Predict the structure.
Amino acid sequence: MKKSKRAKKSNSWKIKQHRDQFFKKSKTLGYRSRASFKLIELNNKFNFLKKNTNLLDLGASPGGWSQVARKMIISGKILSIDIKPMSPIRNVKFFNCDIFDDNSKKKITDFFNGKIDVAVSDMAADTTGNKSLDSIRTNLLCSEAINFSSKILKKNGVFVSKVFMGDDFIQVKTLAKSTFEKVNFFKPDSSRSESKETYLHCKILKSL
């Protein structure tokens, strides 16, 4: 009996994962995902994680970015949010909720009791098989995260997020530039070459 196309695709993905140097390194170093290296590279490039940073990690599960942040942030507070569950990380607070729900937003502001230094997001919409639709849905998450971050970041705060180079990329870029003084894009080496993802780094909120 022939394997279905979906089964073949799944097996191909597993083979690629095991050959992937960043996947192997994540297992060796105890990171929960290869995505951990993306945040490491982003911070090496833009240097936004300090020992006293107060950080919000959006779409944090399984926790790879929170793990990296916790190693670099000594005295600051870290709050991780995801609609999916996440195993505990020492000295990281986790809320299992929808970041875009009004009650969730209140819990976040109450936790920090003031404006924060950094908001990061590696959120991506669940895949549908339609790459164009997946790109649009993920970029919508990025846009919503920009809008929310603009309300909770300090004036000199930093926002970092995954974004896809799709049909609506220009809309996300325009929103970012209308919200922040400095906007840069960077694709880490740990992003797969065939992926359309890149990362947005924004700094300094514009005055209203």
User: Anything to note?
Assistant: The first helix runs from residue 5 to 19. The radius of gyration is 17 Å.
